[in-house]
Amino acid sequence: MRSLFVGMLVLTAVVSVSAQSRKPAVPRTADGHPDLQGTWDFAQLTPFERPGDFAGKDTVTEEEAEEFAQKRIETTHKDRRDGGAAADVERAYNDFWWDFGRRIARQPSLVVDPPDGRVPPLTAEAQQRAAARRGKYDNPEERPLAERCVLGFNSGPPMIPSAYNNNMQLVQTRDHVVILNEMIHSARIVSLAGRPHAPKNIRSLTGDSVGRWDGDTLVVDTVAIDTRVRNISVGKTGDANAWLHSEKEHVIERFSRPSKNYLVYQLTVEDPEVLVKPFVSAPHTWTLAQDPNDVWTEYICTSNEEPEFFKKLDDKTKEEYEKSGRTDQGAQTGRGR
């Protein structure tokens, strides 16, 4: 049943694009700008980076997209019990709690520039920084912020589809937009008043965001992201060794609403101290929550839970887990509810 559902969604996505070509009425606010408000789901089965299966392809057929979706659902299913005790522990929750999305686009990746659909390599300096941090987990300050329940691993900027809680609520006034992410409920306040960025020495976890309208598209420009924040390591959600930001990172997000039920998001990331060149995503569709009663519950993130759980494992399971060489990935300090 799950397979059929994915296939139907692939076909629905194609129909939706066709329907949008008829230019349905766009909701607007009193000042004439598109009304971007709503709770939006940005989960995607479309891979962020182009996988080897699609190497050299700029588009994929419906059959290829559905086959990839089926394969991803099967390989990420958390109720599997293969792989031994170590793999079982790393799956963390049962499958009910995970949400990798149910939509797949007819494109091989969300990243479209560079043309190979891959995030550019790290600079030599960034590789050294990543290597210096690898394996350091004894000090709480060395643990990732998401793991310490400080900032969500997919809350951005930029907002990249991840393992669960891929929901964002946007609230809009004439002079401000608030981007509220479900993941550890971080709120980013974007000024639309035309002010310049704050001084460079003032930094925050989600950076300093200013916005402007480019026709019917909201362009959000963000700098001054705290250098302790880690970008998602593509393909390894929540990877503790994901690369860091530098003080020169610059994120541009573009939001548009082609119709009532869809929001289109595109991102550009440049960081000359970390990436050898910028990368750009394709415009991709988020969907509006349809049920007015679908209200978020608080994402309660608690510290120091899983290490205690790990201590209670039987000796055989601990031994298998440690021999796997993946203890740095699985022994997390924060868990959400």
**Sequence stretches where pLDDT stays below 50 over 5 or more residues:** 1-21, 233-241, 326-337
Rg, nearest Å: 20 Å
**Count of β-strands:** 13
Chain-averaged pLDDT: 81
* Class based on secondary structure composition and strand pairing: alpha+beta
Largest sheet: 11 strands, antiparallel
Describe the structure.
The protein is an alpha+beta fold and 337 residues long. The chain has helices at 2-20, 62-76, 84-90, 124-133, 306-311, 315-323, 327-330; strands at residues 38-41, 111-113, 167-172, 176-181, 187-191, 208-214, 217-223, 250-259, 262-270, 279-281, 284-288, 301-303, 334-336. It has one domain (2-288). It has seven helices and 13 strands. Helix 1 crosses helix 2 (62-76) and helix 3 crosses helix 6 (315-323). The two termini are 28 Å apart.
Keywords:
21% helix, 337 residues
Q: How are the SSEs ordered, and which strands pair?
A:
Layout: H1 2-20, E1 38-41, H2 62-76, H3 84-90, E2 111-113, H4 124-133, E3 167-172, E4 176-181, E5 187-191, E6 208-214, E7 217-223, E8 250-259, E9 262-270, E10 279-281, E11 284-288, E12 301-303, H5 306-311, H6 315-323, H7 327-330, E13 334-336
Antiparallel strand pairs: 1-3, 1-11, 2-10, 3-4, 4-5, 6-7, 7-8, 8-9, 9-10, 9-11, 12-13
